[in-house]
Amino acid sequence: MSSVLYIASDRELPITPLKKAAKVITFKSEKPPEGCIPLDQIIDLSDVMENLSEDEVEQFDTYEDAAGIVIRDLSVDEKEIGKQFKNKFIYELSASWGDFYLNEMLKNKFPSNFKANRKCICKLFEFIKENAGIGRGMELYKCWIGEEGQDRNKQLDMEIDLKSFVLGDSFELEDRQYIVFKV
What we know:
There is one protein chain. The protein is α/β, with parallel strands linked by helices. The chain is built from 4 helices and 8 strands; from the N terminus they run ββαβαββααβββ. It has helices at about 45-50, 65, 105-110, 110-130, and strands spanning about 5-10, 25, 55-60, 70-75, 90-95, 135-145, 160, 175-180.
């Protein structure tokens, strides 16, 4: 199973434009984590790479360069998530080449991933600040796919004021957690 994040606003939000997905993503400066073997050392990828057009290969310098957020409309079968929110405009939120958590282990063992995740979180906060409007906020909810209609864990409810919030080295959204972001 996978978890999913939803974001809600009192006004319509800009949707991330769809682009043709690259078949191959490469990173110039990234090396596999210790103990991992690059795929091209296991199998011969030369035929695959030679037959790709330029628009099928996307290249970044680092994971952080590729990191960002994606906002998309809900599909028809995701409408039951509405019970979790006060605001009526609800969207699915995801990270692009990163995630929405930080911790010491990630920082120490996988610093490139830590930086990519940090960028995703910062991009989320920027998005909220740019699109919520002064004195308004947005809501966020995380749950497992298929569990959108279950009651949230009210003990995890929180409010984050982005005017004063300082992102440290530890941040995580919990399952069935509801957060109101104020700006």
